[in-house]
Amino acid sequence: MFGDDRHKSDLKHECELVVKDNVTYRYIDHGLFVGLRRAFRKRLLIDESNPRSRSFYKSSFIMTRETIYHLNFYYFMIHPFSSFREFWECLQIIVILFQLTQIPFNLLLITNPPPRYLTVLPDLCTIADIIVTFNTGYVHSQANCVILNRSRVAKHYILTTFLCDLLSLISLDYIVMMIHGSAYLENIPFYNHLEFVNVSKWLRFFVMWLYLNRLKESRQINIFAMGVIKLIASITLLIMWICALNYVSTYSTAWHDKQDATAASYTVYNIFGDLYIQHVRNMVLSAFHLLFLIGTRDPPVNLGVLIAQMIMMLVGFILHLLVLCQMMQYGTRYNSSCKYQQSVKQLTDYMRHKSLPPALQTKLLKYYDFRYELSYYQEDHIMKIMGPQLRQEVMLQSHMHFFAKFPLFEIIPLDVLFGVIMKMKISCYMPADTIIAAGARNTAIFFINYGSIAIYTISGKELKHLAEGEHFGELALMGDTKHNSDTIIAIDCCEIYVLDRKHFMDEISQRPEVYLRVTQYMSEYVAKYYHDDVDLYTDAGSIK
To answer: How many whole angstroms separate alpha carbon 484 and alpha carbon 466?
Structure first.
């Protein structure tokens, strides 16, 4: 009936309708440093090589359309799937790790505090991150779209991670310095201990967590490998901070008893030994308290050490709970991932057994990735266990985004739409696949959900392109089921919903008012897009 066999067409799509060029060339074609400006602007636009872009937009045609929309309406905004944004988030991960390791390390250098610029530099990077994020779009998960509107971006950022970034800039030593001056701060015997109360810096840890999740998606890092990285980073940071807490509590208590910095340092020396032994011993003790939730044989030397040990064991208990929850979550994801990997392995074994050529093997693997999006589920089994009412509600809600693309579905009631969607078949096509071949008889209408297609005459001349939100085969729906005289080729990966005329008529014929509205709409559509005196394409036959 139609090209569901996905055979390779003799036609190779080399577009004759438009000149292929970089979209940025049309917008930046004069002025100073044109090449540099084009390269910079390209880094701010959607990156087609980013797996997040391919997963979200499905086809290169839609990504090109998104780029043009971005340049036309939100020229100075940064796309969340851009190469610049990915680079910036990687840079911020490094800065946050440096900041969270620098503070406890500084606290151990009581006699020789580090240069001030090492503390100020991460805060400057945080300010820069706030500015960049205010100018970066975000993904609206419910609407399944990218928002680039500046006011909506600002509102979303303020309601999510802005407070974490802002509070992380508040430092107690800065406040003391502004009130009393830097001279007063330097006269405090252990003034660099004030950094320890800047626990607000840990708020940036949650921002780093978010950036790591995006990095996992964009670089397609294994979920378990990323989980191990997160776990090691979390435990290492906690050990360093608790080590500093143990050391600072000992020093502060000793200073409080002696009221003299030299005597306090001597007390700490007697407890921990020289500087390097202090660090190693603190690390071991902190890890011991944190991971095993028990104290040491030796009693605490003072109240500060006792408090530090209690805090260590409390934090360790919370860490154990978080790790347990994370392991359970990974176990759930592992089952789904294993099922998908097993299906891919079966496909690989099948291709090897059939001795398929490498090019066809690559195409089949790409088809699997596009069709199942690196996940595995049995939709038929899931739908069967639902009741009729719940099944109808789930089907309608899951296809609302699809219905919104086509005006035809706006005039059909929801109860009829449910019957229509149940009769539709989903077909996926890879680039250069033939969807409808010339000479084939067509009795269905095709709705392009993702991707784009090209229409060729029987002589091989390219007529036009159709993309997401458009349909073809309208004349078959009107009863014209002549043999097709045009060939329709997939330009890139396409997901197309196919609705046979008989099934469609069975659904709407039971409702005369719906049948009348659909007939009137299709008549107006054909009158608008087909003309008697012009030879245009049609998937059901050429109209003359």
So the answer is: 17
